[in-house]
Amino acid sequence: MQAAAAWRRHLLDGNISPTTAAAISAFRSASQPALTPQGLGGADGARYMSARAPAVKGTGHLVRKGTGGRSSVSGIIATVFGATGFLGRYLVQQLAKMGSQVLVPFRGSEDCHRHLKLMGDLGQIVPMKYNPRDVDSIKAVMAKSNVVINLIGREYETRNYGFDEVNHHMAEQLAMISKEHGGIMRFIQVSSLGASASSPSRMLRAKAAGEESVLKEFPEATIMRPATMIGTEDRILNRWAQFAKNWGFLPLVDSGSTKIQPVYVVDVAAAIVNSLKDDGTSMGKTYELGGPEIYTVHDLAELMYETICEWPRYIDVPLPIARAIASPREMLLNKVPFPLPTPSIFNKDQINAFSVDTLVSDNALTFSDLGIVPHKLKGYPVEFLVCYRKGGPAFGSTVSEKIRSSEL
């Protein structure tokens, strides 16, 4: 077949003008090396994206083609660890929308990633089963990538995964493997606002250790520290609304006086994407991503009640009592032969995290440094809570139409 193709090329070259022949020759020389770009194909001939967008090593920017959109080529081949989580679905959607190929490592059932495949063109979202404790498995899911984004995190411990392993050691291992890879141009570590070695929260201490280890292994990494994220699948307003609907009240630790800076999850995803679009100026930097408004925990609960159109009813729980209520799960975690229920309102580590104010630092890099104006929470970002209204989503457009607790 190669001989026949060469003969046809010879016949064609003999019957065209010199100008056309020169153009064809230039096209062949330009396109031939891109047929098997380094990092995209090997001995097995596997190819995971268009040959028009080869991975480029050792540079701070990416090769792009097209005007934007899912049918363009952003040059990004991103392995997104933790893509099946809350932030992951919004990040995958925005990466796919700009023409990136996204590899989605997953360790559970195939139902975990089904919703993500709809966010891109055919073959654009590539789920890959892996084992987070197997180095070879991790190397396989990032073998074809030039960008690695780590969203792995856990706000409570289970019998199988603790804070240190999930938030620290896994991040360290991903950074180490990415550095050894040689073709990973960008590494983004998503941490948490308030991460500090002196935090009362074990999770935030583990997050801080993870940041330090990532920067040690991959100094060019970008660290993102989002505040408490709000969105349709969040684990704070949804849990509060469910508890308030089921029990008729909401417990607040220390009257909910702690100050926080909640942020819309879509804005966090946009910040990550914008950091990939720059010319490398975000490499090696840490960004603190808080919303435009400062709330107390009580204020945020008021916003929740206002959105579900019910009169608020609270029970003040002193901090020591809240810790005592949450302690049995911590003590029994590794002492019983069965998994314990997922903590909802009384998560001991979250109680500790909310015992101190969590705000963006004065001199920190923020959304504005990435060209983003974050949304205010009131309005669309919390609109998903209307599903908890007793009279249906269209019920209660004014405060006077709220349902009193005595009417529940």
Automatic annotation (TrEMBL):
<feature type="domain" description="NAD-dependent epimerase/dehydratase">
    <location>
        <begin position="79"/>
        <end position="290"/>
    </location>
</feature>
<protein>
    <recommendedName>
        <fullName>NAD-dependent epimerase/dehydratase domain-containing protein</fullName>
    </recommendedName>
</protein>
<dbReference type="GO" id="GO:0005739">
    <property type="term" value="C:mitochondrion"/>
</dbReference>
<dbReference type="InterPro" id="IPR001509">
    <property type="entry name" value="Epimerase_deHydtase"/>
</dbReference>
<dbReference type="InterPro" id="IPR036291">
    <property type="entry name" value="NAD(P)-bd_dom_sf"/>
</dbReference>
<dbReference type="InterPro" id="IPR051207">
    <property type="entry name" value="ComplexI_NDUFA9_subunit"/>
</dbReference>
<dbReference type="Pfam" id="PF01370">
    <property type="entry name" value="Epimerase"/>
</dbReference>
<dbReference type="GO" id="GO:0044877">
    <property type="term" value="F:protein-containing complex binding"/>
</dbReference>
